[in-house]
Amino acid sequence: MRYACGADCLQLFQSSEFLTASQIASYFSHLNAAARQQDMDELDIQASEETNFPSTRDIVATARQIQHPITYDQFDLCSMAKGDTLKMLKSPTLQRVCEGLGLDAPQPLVRRRAPYRELLKDITQNCSCQQ
pTM for the complete prediction? Predict the structure, then answer.
């Protein structure tokens, strides 16, 4: 900017108008601080809005409660538990169903079917059709 010239080939700035490196650094420091303060204000607004989320969280939790019939893919787990046909599913299928429903499947995965069948029986016992 020290050498910037206008259309009439005269310098645009006088030597008294030149800024030092520390003045420029200070300007950008203040600019950055103002931007951070604005971000913090926006975060405070978001935090205050999030205090209204418990009611929304309750609605989602209610919607996620187990409802009859409990199904996964093409399997109607309620009727399978009632008819005792869960034993017909193979171990990899049982593992996939348990993981898909978000159940606490044994880790590491086991080749036996019994732990997975027990998990599925436990969740189907809470269903309204089993009571």
Answer: 0.45
